[in-house]
Amino acid sequence: MATTDDTLKEFSSKRVEVLAAAISIVGGLAYGLLRHSFSSGLSLTAAGAVAIINFRWLELVLMRVVQPGAPQFDGGSVLRLLGRMALFGVLMAALLWVPNTDAVGVALGFSALVIALVIEAFRWGRAGGG
Fold first, then answer.
1. What pLDDT, in 10s, does the model give residues 54-74?
2. Among 32, 97, 105, 115, which is most exposed with the fewest C-beta within 10 angstroms?
3. Residue 5 confidence (pLDDT) above 70
4. Band of the pLDDT at 1, cuts 50, 70, 90?
5. pLDDT (tens digit, 9 = 90+) per residue, 95-109?
């Protein structure tokens, strides 16, 4: 059983996901209000959600494939990788085809995950993780 101190020293992808979701939602609201556009805020929030989904799927694939011993690269891993690419492709196609999609909002939405990863990495480092 891990103590609270031990769990704080571990890198938590769950914390990254929750923080990225909070940044995406709050950022979407702020950006939408700043731009006076519902679609701008929605673009940021949707891109943040896609980034979080991609992060989660990539983590699941890596947990299966990058293991000591023989890698477990099965059909589920291939489908997740293809799903990640398709999801990203749909988002990029939406930039071209959906009216009022805000490209800056999409870029900021993807940045929410990066910001959450950086915050978690600093927290992890300060807690003595490694």
1. 899 888 888 877 777 766 777
2. 97
3. no
4. very low
5. 778 888 888 999 999
Contact (Cβ atoms closer than 8 angstroms) between residue 97 and residue 16 = no
Chain-centre distance for alpha carbon 40: 19
The answer on pLDDT for 20 being more than 90 is yes
DSSP H helices in the chain = 4-8, 13-35, 38-65, 75-97, 103-126
Q: How many residues does the chain have?
A: 130
20 Cβ neighbours under 8 A, 6+ residues apart: 48, 51, 52, 55, 112, 113, 115, 116, 117
Helices 103-126, 75-97: axis angle to 10 degrees equals 140
User: How many CB atoms within 10 Å of residue 88?
Assistant: 15
Q: Locate 65 and state its tokens.
A: 């494939």
Q: Give the Cα-Cα-Cα angle 65, 69, 72 (nearest 5 degrees).
A: 30
DSSP character string of 49-71: HHHHHHHHHHHHHHHHHS-SSS-
- For residue 35, what are the contacts with CB-CB under 8 A and spacing of at least 6? 41, 102, 105
